[in-house]
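Deliverable D5.2: sample structural annotation.
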Amino acid sequence: MAPLSTLLGTLALVTSAAAFTTAPLHTHARRLSPLHQLGDDKGGGSAIATPKTKQVTTTVQKQKQESKQKKKFKPSEPDQLNENDFEDAPMYRLYLIGDEGYDQEHVVTRIHEIVEDCSEDDAATLFKAAYQGGEAFMGKYPMEIAETYAEQLTRSDPIIYADVRDDKE
């Protein structure tokens, strides 16, 4: 075992010593390739050879076709899509609640701005009806729209009271 370790140690020293020595510089390079034999002024090199065999690739695509059978209807039958397939949204009533502290100009202006289908004359009529009777019916709307109108009126400064009730009551 000792000669083997001595041999490996010597080999390591020789290899490491050769790695740090300077390599001799050659001032002229040997031209071994036939591409450079014509000289520097000719550009050297031959043309790229073309292969003697031709390579042909063909691709085959298979398409799957789905066949759907159309339902046959008699000419006297109506279309299967009826207008009755959709249900109307449940309607809710919007009420303006009367209050003695209201300023008529403010209430009429806000109702006209918030409620889309209400003119200033209609808003003035609603204000008078709410002032005299305690509340005034403003209209029937889907739930989201009625709640939006009521919330916007309630957020006015000064506050305008409004109530949303189910149409079935």
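Annotation notes: The mean pLDDT is 78. The helical segments are 2-19, 104-114, 120-133, 143-154.
The annotation will be released with the project's public dataset once the embargo ends.
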